[in-house]
Design a protein that fits this description.
Helix content: 25-40%
Number of strands: 5
Number of helices: 4
Structural class: alpha+beta
Distance between the termini: 65 Å
Strand order of the largest sheet: 1-2-3-4-5
Order of helices and strands: HEHEEEEHH
Length: 149
């Protein structure tokens, strides 16, 4: 009976060690920086929909820069940015990682003259959900129409 318990304990220890080694080698290595120069799957990487904005700095380029600045330096999921759609003081930033993807919702803060991430996303938005987040319906519709479907 002692030999059976010892054999079982030895097997458990070996399995635990192998699992630990496997987890160690499967962990992500330091990811490369966010890539934005090439936008392979989206021919037009930004678009502005003609809804009056209260600031001339609420552009697709400034929204993209704000999102990129907010990404973790480690960027474990290797997130790449794609299309940016701006309508008024709101923007949707399409992003894809190795495991996850989504559309971040940003709002331009006119008092501080900066883009703020309202929701980092993880999936896609629809018009109703954008309205729930405080986006005016005409702006939400313009944002949604500006994305590829």
């Amino acid at each position: 009976m002692k030999q059976t318990i010892l054999a079982a304990l030895s097997i458990v220890i070996v399995v635990a060690l192998l699992a630990g080694v496997a987890v160690y080698y499967m962990r992500p290595s330091s990811a490369p920086a966010v890539q934005t120069a090439q936008q392979p799957s989206v021919p037009n990487n930004s678009s502005s929909v003609p809804i009056p904005s209260s600031s001339s700095q609420a552009t697709a380029q400034t929204a993209l820069a704000a999102y990129q600045a907010a990404l973790s330096k480690d960027n474990v999921d290797n997130i790449k940015t794609y299309q940016t759609v701006v309508a008024g003081n709101y923007a949707l930033q399409v992003w894809k990682g190795d495991v996850t993807s989504g559309q971040a919702l940003l709002k331009f803060d006119t008092t501080k003259n900066v883009w703020v991430i309202v929701d980092p996303g993880g999936g896609t938005w629809n018009i109703a959900d954008l309205v729930v987040m405080g986006v005016p319906k005409d702006t939400a519709t313009a944002l949604w129409k500006g994305l590829p479907h």
